[in-house]
């Protein structure tokens, strides 16, 4: 395998890490208005992700930064063709990050209500947006010779891309509710688990349809196997949750995500953004990779950096492993 | 306005705004780490109070720095895709390293620090704030390496019309970066220093006025003021020294920026330094400009002696035209500028005044720190209400100095986005006009400019509101008084 293929795989892994980690914290944000009955319960929910959401979010910075370093035209084309969806994602991430940090800084119901709206909106938009953008990239765009989009910004909103948006949002909601069942205790744990069981089948539908359409359109034998494993893992995740095994369910959802993301990126490989106008205009791993020297340098950095990140981020999850319930929430003490 | 103008305004606004938060984060997070170290070592209550109080203000600011930084990582691709494709082989590497090496550590360990009070062992918890704060500084190093490469491209060869990295070591040890890094970090400490001085002075003065009784938190404020004042003065000295080093590099690497900093129209030997000008500095022939000058000082700033010739704007234009061409290439992507003459002179009032405001506001900050230290010597507290007012106002000065410094250095390299290296590889430069995304419409670009500016504006109000609220409340706002009832073991020490 040459360096450019290794970097393609690494970028897939970074996106996987991002969607896995921030997927559940998007889900928690989306569910804030649905699962909590009062402010203490909302605080329980926010605090399940409190120490980790920022570290989770950096995965997207690294995924995008690595794309810049390893495949500059891919980075440039993805972000400039999906200009407005990416802008919306950025605005959402800005609002959401500030909202987590600021919502408890003033003791006023109105203050908290406003930030709760920001958290919910800010948690809906990015999974929808990334689902749209990543699916549109992997399934092809009307790219011209210059890497611009023929047909204007609306060309991005293909039926498949819209399905991708629903799939990632659905995954986040399911993943978030299972995460809450895993990380909370008492009534809210019951509620989150019950909600995941009820909403789960609905969340799996767009994922299943997306996998089937990808298979028909650009699949091969190995994507078929992977897609089948992914869907099986999705169904099993609900079965194990019903049996009260929240941890197993959470891990199985991870398997589902691996399947979906690898099939999505892998079915386009060696293209990274196929052009629907002319295959000659497609961006591929080969024609957009940086020089072997740059890739070599970055490989060394990633070889030491990535395991270190996994190690200390795992330690964080270990430190904050305890379930949180309403009785753990301290009284509000702010000026 | 065309796409280029809107994209430039957007980059300017979002970057200057982001850099209001960054220096305070860099400086204050290390200051907080020092305070917590003092607490862990001595066990004295006022060090704990300082850690909690300044730590809270640091976090309010930190959140904004983080979220506005996300935009930076994306906007090269969104608005400057032609630039990204041209320099990606070189420029992407430091950005990716910044994410993987610095941002990951910063975000993870800051989370551990915020939520780790009373859960982690004391020393491990202390290590977390050090990890997070040092990672912020490391991130500054990577991004300044990237920026310095645009000012002075090194470590490359020129292949197929694009720069290609051939030495990451050269890029990371670019002399431009080695000078810019301490300069920028010292600027961050200057911000943190006056921030401490301003708020502490106000608390000292208020408590002194309101009651004659001994204030239990007095040591918090007097220690903070002293620490802040020393940090402010030392960092100003560091800023001046490193700035001098940068000036000498600029003289070699970007002579036009040097001339523009002075609005120096004609070549002079020895060259005098203009302290203050009145009249219209925008004219390239220096008609109608009177200036107060220090003879031969500019020669010294440029080359460490009092006789070196410093080239003026007029001569440099010809030199640049001969070397890099007098007209833009004919290319439809360049829009109106296609085939037009290249204007090699930056906007002189911006560079001239930007340079002076940078130095001036930095000097005021240092003077304010010195004054505050003198006025509070041996436990004195001035009674006049001017004392806290001026101290609070001085908080703004290093922020202004930082912003003007960046505006100067980025506007001063126009019309280039990648400035040609006079002693580097031929052919590696890029005009800003060539860098903008070709496939993005004015409408899209305006939408993002308006949306980002509006959101940033609202958030600025919210951040200042919270900072003021917490700064006023003092120690009581961050450390609940001990209660008689036994605290349950189960309750979290900190929760959102």
UniProtKB/TrEMBL annotation, chain A:
Positions the record marks as coiled coil are: none
A cellular component term (GO) from this record?
cytochrome complex
Alphabetical GO biological process terms: aerobic electron transport chain
Which is one GO molecular function term here? Answer: electron transfer activity
A Pfam family in this protein? Cyt_bd_oxida_II
In the UniProt record, does the keyword NADP occur? no
Write the record's keywords in alphabetical order, separated by commas. Answer: Cell membrane, Electron transport, Heme, Iron, Membrane, Metal-binding, Oxidoreductase, Transmembrane, Transmembrane helix, Transport
Q: Which domain of life is it from?
A: Bacteria
Principal localisation = membrane
Which PANTHER family does this chain map to?
Answer: CYTOCHROME BD-I UBIQUINOL OXIDASE SUBUNIT 2, CYTOCHROME BD2 SUBUNIT II
Q: What is this protein called?
A: Cytochrome d ubiquinol oxidase subunit 2
Which source organism?
A: Kutzneria albida DSM 43870
TrEMBL record, chain B:
Indicate where this protein is primarily found: membrane
Q: Per the UniProt record, which residue ranges are transmembrane?
A: 20-41, 53-71, 91-115, 127-144, 185-205, 225-243, 353-375, 387-408, 446-468
Mode of membrane association: Multi-pass membrane protein
* Annotated compartments: Cell membrane
**Which molecular function GO terms apply here?**
electron transfer activity; heme binding; metal ion binding; oxidoreductase activity, acting on diphenols and related substances as donors, oxygen as acceptor
Keyword terms: Cell membrane, Electron transport, Heme, Iron, Membrane, Metal-binding, Oxidoreductase, Transmembrane, Transmembrane helix, Transport
One of the GO biological process terms: aerobic electron transport chain
Q: Name one GO cellular component term.
A: plasma membrane
Carries keyword Glycoprotein? no
EC annotation from Swiss-Prot or TrEMBL: 1.10.3.-
Kindly give the InterPro entries that the UniProt entry links to this protein.
Cyt-d_ubiquinol_oxidase_su_1 (IPR002585)
Q: Which Pfam families match?
A: Cyt_bd_oxida_I
- Can you tell me which family this protein belongs to? Belongs to the cytochrome ubiquinol oxidase subunit 1 family.
What is the name of the protein in this document? Cytochrome d ubiquinol oxidase subunit 1
Q: Which organism is it from?
A: Kutzneria albida DSM 43870
């Amino acid at each position: 395998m040459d360096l450019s293929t290794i970097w393609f795989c690494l970028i897939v892994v970074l996106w996987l890490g991002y969607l896995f980690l921030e997927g559940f914290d998007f889900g928690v944000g989306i569910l804030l208005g649905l699962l909590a009955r009062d402010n203490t319960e909302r605080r329980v929910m926010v605090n399940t992700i409190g120490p980790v959401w920022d570290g989770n979010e950096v995965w997207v910075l690294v995924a995008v930064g690595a794309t810049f370093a390893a495949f500059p035209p891919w980075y440039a084309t993805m972000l400039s063709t999906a200009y407005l969806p990416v802008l919306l994602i950025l605005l959402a991430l800005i609002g959401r990050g500030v909202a987590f940090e600021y919502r408890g800084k003033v003791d006023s119901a109105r203050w908290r209500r406003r930030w709760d709206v920001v958290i919910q909106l800010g948690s809906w938009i990015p999974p929808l947006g990334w689902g749209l953008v990543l699916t549109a990239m992997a399934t092809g765009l009307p790219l011209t010779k210059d890497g611009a989009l023929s047909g204007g910004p609306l060309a991005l909103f293909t039926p498949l891309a819209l399905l991708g948006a629903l799939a990632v949002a659905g995954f986040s909601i399911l993943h978030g509710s299972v995460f809450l069942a895993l990380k909370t205790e008492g009534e809210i744990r019951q509620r989150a688990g019950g909600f995941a069981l009820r909403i789960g089948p609905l969340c799996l539908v767009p994922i299943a349809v997306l996998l089937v359409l990808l298979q028909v359109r650009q699949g091969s034998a190995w994507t078929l196997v992977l897609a089948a494993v992914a869907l099986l893992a999705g169904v099993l995740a609900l079965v194990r949750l019903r049996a009260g095994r929240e941890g197993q369910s959470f891990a199985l959802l991870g398997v589902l995500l691996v399947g979906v993301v690898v099939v999505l990126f892998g079915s386009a490989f060696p293209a990274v953004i196929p052009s629907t106008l002319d295959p000659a205009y497609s961006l591929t791993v080969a024609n957009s990779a940086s020089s072997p020297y740059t890739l070599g340098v970055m490989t060394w950095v990633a070889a030491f950096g990535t395991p270190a990140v996994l190690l200390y981020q795992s330690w964080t999850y270990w430190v904050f492993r305890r379930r949180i319930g309403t009785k753990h929430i301290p009284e509000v003490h702010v000026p | 306005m065309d796409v280029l103008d809107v994209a430039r305004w957007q980059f300017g606004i979002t970057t200057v705004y982001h850099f209001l938060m960054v220096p305070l984060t860099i400086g204050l997070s290390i200051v907080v780490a020092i305070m917590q170290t003092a607490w862990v070592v001595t066990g004295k209550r006022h060090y704990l109070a300082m850690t909690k109080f300044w730590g809270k203000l640091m976090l309010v600011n930190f959140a904004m720095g983080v979220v506005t930084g996300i935009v930076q990582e994306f906007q090269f691709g969104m608005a400057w895709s032609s630039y990204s494709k041209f320099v990606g082989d070189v420029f992407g590497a430091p950005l990716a390293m910044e994410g993987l090496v610095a941002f990951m550590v910063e975000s993870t360990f800051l989370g551990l620090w915020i939520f780790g009070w009373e859960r982690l062992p004391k020393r491990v918890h202390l290590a977390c704030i050090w990890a997070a704060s040092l990672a912020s500084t490391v991130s500054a190093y990577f991004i300044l390496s990237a920026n310095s490469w645009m000012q002075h491209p090194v470590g490359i060869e020129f292949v197929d019309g694009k720069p290609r990295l051939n030495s990451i070591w050269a890029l990371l040890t670019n002399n431009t970066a080695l000078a810019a890094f301490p300069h920028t970090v010292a600027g961050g400490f200057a911000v943190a220093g006056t921030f401490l001085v301003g708020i502490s002075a106000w608390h000292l003065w208020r408590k002194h006025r309101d009651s004659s009784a001994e204030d239990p938190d007095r040591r918090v404020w007097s220690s903070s003021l002293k620490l802040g004042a020393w940090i402010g003065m030392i960092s100003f000295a560091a800023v001046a020294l490193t700035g001098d080093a940068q000036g000498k590099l600029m003289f070699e690497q970007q002579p036009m920026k040097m001339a523009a900093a002075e609005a120096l129209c004609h070549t002079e030997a020895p060259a005098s330094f203009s302290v203050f000008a009145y009249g219209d500095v925008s004219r390239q022939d220096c008609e109608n400009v009177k200036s107060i000058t220090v003879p031969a000082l500019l020669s010294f700033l440029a080359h460490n002696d009092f006789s070196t010739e410093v080239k003026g704007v007029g001569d440099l234009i010809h030199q640049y035209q001969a070397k890099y061409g007098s007209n833009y290439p004919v290319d439809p992507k360049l829009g109106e500028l296609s085939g037009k003459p290249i204007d090699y002179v930056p906007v002189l009032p911006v560079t001239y005044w930007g340079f002076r405001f940078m130095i001036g506001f930095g000097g005021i900050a240092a003077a304010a720190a010195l004054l505050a230290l003198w006025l509070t010597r041996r436990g004195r507290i001035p009674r006049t209400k001017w004392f806290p007012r001026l101290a609070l106002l001085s908080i703004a000065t290093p922020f202004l100095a930082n912003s003007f410094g960046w505006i100067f250095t980025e506007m001063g390299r126009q019309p280039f986005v990648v400035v040609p290296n006079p002693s580097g590889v031929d052919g590696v430069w890029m005009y800003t006009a060539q860098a903008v995304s070709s496939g993005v419409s004015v409408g899209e670009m305006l939408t993002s400019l308006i949306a980002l500016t509006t959101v940033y504006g609202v958030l600025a109000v919210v951040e200042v509101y919270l900072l003021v609220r917490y700064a006023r409340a003092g120690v009581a706002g961050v450390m609940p008084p001990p209660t008689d009832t036994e605290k349950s073991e189960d309750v979290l020490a900190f929760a959102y």
